[in-house]
Amino acid sequence: MKKYNVAIVGATGMVGEALTQVLEERNFPINNLKMLASARSANTVMEFGGKEYRIEEAEPGAFEGVDFAFFSAGGDVSKELAPEAVKRGTIVVDNSSAFRMEPEIPLVVPEVNPQDVEGHKGLISNPNCSTIQLVVALQPLHQLSPMKRVVVSTYQSVSGAGKEAVDELLDQSQAIIDGKEFEKNMIPHKGAKRNHQIAFNMVPQLDVFQDNGYTKEEMKIIKETQKIMGLPQLKITSTTVRVPVTLGHSESVNIEFQGEVTPQEARKALENFPGIIVIDDPDELLYPMPVDCAHKDEVFVGRIRRDESVDYGLNIWVVSDNIRKGAATNSIQIAECIIEKGLC
Amino acid sequence: MKKYNVAIVGATGMVGEALTQVLEERNFPINNLKMLASARSANTVMEFGGKEYRIEEAEPGAFEGVDFAFFSAGGDVSKELAPEAVKRGTIVVDNSSAFRMEPEIPLVVPEVNPQDVEGHKGLISNPNCSTIQLVVALQPLHQLSPMKRVVVSTYQSVSGAGKEAVDELLDQSQAIIDGKEFEKNMIPHKGAKRNHQIAFNMVPQLDVFQDNGYTKEEMKIIKETQKIMGLPQLKITSTTVRVPVTLGHSESVNIEFQGEVTPQEARKALENFPGIIVIDDPDELLYPMPVDCAHKDEVFVGRIRRDESVDYGLNIWVVSDNIRKGAATNSIQIAECIIEKGLC
């Protein structure tokens, strides 16, 4: 079996760390693994899975001889270096939003649109975390009856804002318990005009606001879902909220269909779909919760029930680890998909 | 000005405490204030607003001479004692769900359906916390154009499950920060077949499950909204979620209208409606959040924007203190409304 030279760009971040773990867990066929990060982190040594790696500076020359590069260092790094990597024959799976909406760039969730990797030009975009778990849950339902409209409200963990945001949640929680002052620097995002408390609070803003009153995160859910599912006209709206959870995003999803979809049919279709685990047992008070879904690769679906406010509707509750399936795992599945299809 | 003999039933709970505070803040015309609770708490002394009150046992005779009784001691106590109080000429404002859906019992949010107190038979029900803030926000919008359909997802604080649940959230948070074991007794509710972690987690269950897969909390939002707004056919669906916030419920509300309602028109109508404060300034990263709305009596609305997935739709974000406007304040406003209308 062929083995590949792999690079991780943004190795020191949460997604970088998860990429390393998931590559190992899935026995990705690695010849050489290269850890790239900013010049600031270069030459530091990190341990992953019992092995030590010296971080190298992410610069164009670093991609010579690299077969697959997983980018997760923000849009600016991707815009600068992904084209350089592609120029050197590297297949880039980019976790930033830099190229996602470019028509010629595939935006792929392997359970949903694996065919879209075909004809790739060296760069495949990995969707936004909140989009990935949504489309995985929607796809088997849409196959039962075409969707007419989707309304999503999210409950997104602070890990989506990085390690420092997780630390800030814990620090603020401790300070509030102790009745002490605390710092607010990470939510809604680092360097924001105004930062908000996240511990014991809800912040209805992720990413920056657009002119239409939606946040960029909300527009990502809308636009990326349409692109991945191949439904550019899909009627979908979203509200995204940052919540005081360390890991795992939750979504309350309301779906209107063109025809009848019973909760029983939905449950069966979801159970039979790859990458989904259904937890839906009201008698036992069982449903997906972030603490149970953290560190797992699947999308978890529960609270499946008929929406009586439309002719054919369902409400569902969708939870997934935003760092794993929402980023690292999906990126690696894209690379696996390319290998399987002989497209590298 | 006439003064009234007032009793609080469930004086030792969070709502009981808030009732005492709000009665004082609003200068409710009190002659005598009687604190009633279970036999277990009787004869203990509690201090409210610098005054000491001896708790008396809530039993039928305690209502002799009482003009207004605010009940907040659970459905069983209301079922047993509210009729006894009414029999003795007391006007009962009941915060439990015991009588809310009985057709002849008014279910009132004074900003929305003050007229429904007319013809009361001695007992007026106070709606569920998550319903109250919802209908206050919906009413001015429905006046602009009749609503076709509402989809609600909630983010509800643990104070709705009582003092012990607030303590449990803080205890669990501390234990998780310290890497220690912790107890789970209060969520989804005390005595549940299975209890869940609430710290750094999301629990998509409030109250018990019904046969249709909805929780009782979700059905309360649906049925109570229809009753209060006088729209028994209103198409509305809901998903309710317990979140690790101590005080203040948030709601992501999607509304489809029969005709055009611009965000500007909506904002103006909300700003002009009694009991609503609009916080909606994306440029300044300002929107309602539970930590800012706690200990206040208003309903706060923000994130007002067009829903492009329907012809005429809006998304809004609604936050309110569930113990104040969601329970104590609204109960007292009902009594004030009865006094104003000369119905006592």
Structure explained in plain terms:
The structure is a homodimer of 344-residue chains. Chain A has helices at 14-25, 75-87, 129-144, 163-178, 216-228, 263-271, 290-293, 324-340; strands at residues 4-9, 30-37, 45-48, 51-54, 56-57, 68-71, 91-94, 123-125, 147-155, 235-239, 249-257, 276-278, 299-306, 313-320. In chain A, helix 3 crosses helix 6. The two termini of chain A are 14 Å apart. The mean pLDDT of chain A is 97. In chain A, the strands form 3 sheets. Chain A has a 6-stranded parallel beta sheet, with helices on both faces. In chain A, strands 10-9-11-14-13-12 form a 6-stranded mixed beta sheet. Chain A is 29% helix and 22% strand. Chain A is of the alpha/beta class and 344 residues long.
Spatial extent as radius of gyration of chain A: 20 Å
Oligomer: homodimer
Q: Helical element count of chain A?
A: 8
Class from helix and strand fractions of chain A = alpha/beta
Strands of chain A, count = 14
Percent of sequence in beta strands of chain A = 15-25%
Side by side, the strands of the main sheet of chain A go: 5-2-1-6-7-8
Tell me, briefly, the overall form of chain A: globular
Q: How many domains make up the coordinates of chain A?
A: 2
